[in-house]
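Task: complex structure prediction.
Instruction: return structure tokens for all chains below.
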Amino acid sequence: MSQRLVVIGAGMASGRVLEHLFEDAPGAFEVTLFNGEARGNYNRIMLSPVLSGEKSYAQIVTHDDAWYAAHNVDCRFGEPVVKIDRERRIVYSNAGGVPYDKLLIATGSAPFIIPVPGHKLPGVVTYRDLDDTNAMIAAARPGARAVVIGGGLLGLEAAAGLALRGMEVVVIHLMGHPMERQLDPAAGYLLQKALEAKGITIHCKGATKAILGTDRAEAVLLEDGTVYGADIVVMAVGIRPETRLANDAHLEVGRGIVVTDQMVTSDPDILAVGECVEHDKQLFGLVAPLYDQARVVAATLLANPAAFRPVQTATKLKVTGCDLFSAGDFADAPDREDIVFRDPARGVYKRLVLKDNRLIGAVLYGDTADGQWFFGLIKDATDITDMRETLIFGPAYQGGASVNPMAAVAALPPEAEICGCNGVCKGKIVTAISSGAVTLDAVRALTKASSSCGSCTGLVEQVMAVTLGDAFAKSAAQPMCKCCDHTHEDVRRLIRSKALKSIPAVMQELGWKTAGGCHSCRPALNYYLLADWPLEYRDDRQSRFVNERNHANIQKDGTYSVVPRMWGGLTTPNELRAIADAADKYNVPMVKVTGGQRIDLLGVRKEDLPAMWADLNEAGMVSGHAYSKGLRTVKTCVGTEFCRFGTQDSTGLGVKLEKHLWGSWTPHKVKMGVSGCPRNCAEATCKDVGVICVDSGYQISVAGAAGMEVKETEFLAATASEAECIAIITAFVQLYRESARYLDRPWKWVAKVGLDWVKTQVVDDLATRAALVERFEVSQSVYRKDPWAEHAKPSERPNWGMLADLTLEAAE
Amino acid sequence: MNWLDIGALADIPAQGARVVKTAHGCVAVFRTADDRVFAMDDRCPHKGGPLSEGIVHGTQVTCPLHNWVFDLTTGLAQGADAGGVATHPARVEGGRILLDAALLARRAAA
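Output:
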């Protein structure tokens, strides 16, 4: 005989209770589910992406109609409960009463409204449920102004979402820095800077005095006299438990509905769960403890022993481009020690707070990959004495047996985020695995985890190993080469996170098994180091393949070919004369026009290279880098200069691009093309980056190939502005430089990370694009130089010849 | 053994090589990361690639043309490739590189 369970509130906590009940004891309860909102359980945490337009409501539904039907839940959505009759054990809505054996109150919380004058004006909204979100979306017109009151988690997510919808957003925050409950001032500063880069104004130490307006909200007045115009005002200052029903029913209520460890209220037949409860004088707002409560509620209903023990919670902000994580307690105190790591250039800040050799707090900004691991140390109160020195670098550096990464992964809760790019949590991956995805590719296909930037691939594999046990065959994670056990991706990540700045440092710290690496890993490491530390690392010529070491292409007979740069394929009579003279002077056996619109001098002896370069330099020419993993050519057509079909100055753009990008090292070679009209004479649509000029501007497409593979480019962006075109291409190249594996051409890299991700980074997210362009420019301050000029110096020339000629001595 | 001073150790970059022209062909003189020197014929037995232009790693060099790897101490090809290159005695003394004068003598004898 099943019992009658009535649930008030269809939120995430009660939804989780039902899942446990139906799983552990199907049919044990006949459930009636009331909800004030006219819908069932959805993932409230994901309202931010809905607000910003990155997700739709349908995508965040947790339980759909079919799920409720399958479990025989009597759904009373849009039907608020008005009264609980404890004596007769009946719950009333305006439609009538429903009797219960057990009652679960899950009324959640209500947004806190500051009662300033004007707070009831139309146009003042809160940010709590889908209706609020839709109200904001309805008000969000590009160019319209929004004021968000409250710079906490919710307020900032609302602000970012509205900004993404094109609104001008001001955040009013009472405290000195945003998210002061989760962040220390330094991280708060970085966050504020990042949000301001997104065009959001943050007004700290701002107290709202009144909301101005006659028929609807028009502006917000602060105590200091500042006035911000507003088409919409979002109150996001906090929440309070929704306890009215419980109060009316004379249950014991403090700040929330008081519950025992078993989640039972002062009435033994009534339980409560979620944000409406108060346990041990504590309230709960984050999802992790609510899910813990849900497990206990289900157990108690099924008469199984269980007790709720609140644990520390961690916070992650869901604003694209602002990566932050905080957990535990990080206030300053005399008995505490700090470990701080800062990398201002990358906007990375990490702070660990220690007390008695235990981690008690962590704030991570910019690089939060190790957040869950730190969180684990806090929760378990692990003694960190043995790993103190390398603690801040995360689990990858805790060598040997002291920390088992598999155990750490096994210990992660199901909601722990594994893939930051696609927001995939551990539970989703485990579900995919149990539904048959036993290879990394299958997990990728099902969940999208590790399918964007790929930096979480190792983690995903560990989840697979933990879930599948011996059945898991690690497939894709090929180590870089036989010299080490790490993948290219891991090595790149570790070079950054551990701040490794030389090849010996990498080999030492990452456990290279050979003394000096090999011809495969050395050039890769050299590239990764110079790409990540452009100002600090010095290029190691001896770790370069012969062509890049000698700045010319070696031929089968040991001679070299020399290709001077012709910007955008343009040359002059003077340059041609100098090339002809050089060909004569050095007895060049073959002169050939290349496919990249320049001239190749083939068959030059190594010892002649510096003198030939000096001659070509003299005529104003520089290296064409025809030998490098770097920018090769920008092929152009004549465009509007002469062509009767040309729509833009394609030649000019090609020259600009080439002058901007030349000299930069990239994971593999990069070839570009700019065509002045869709007739595409520059063959731009099979290049790594191609631009097709049209009447309205420039169409940029990327990831083409015309080698062993032939592949058309894919559309990246269109812009009317030449400057923006150059910026997008620069950001694309820098993103490729930062995240591709060595020797992957752009088309291969894009296939791995996904064009969508590339688009968000270099097209949609203006702050990220600007940062990429800036980092490219830092690198170019070192590398936008002619290597020929350097090696052609008289002092360098002896190095290009024989060390000794013993045949001469023998002849004497 | 008769030793011939062919230049300063500093003339060869660490993990690099320079070429000495001799009567019976070019000899590559390698300097390892730990400043030892090795001499071997500068010609890969596979397609004649200049080994002196290869990447030097540990006491091995990889031919720049097709990635054959040779041990500098024995001249033998490593891994699946079969073959080898002639090596010649070489050493460092007081910052100078000394080669076996036999490389010279052969010419004189010829």
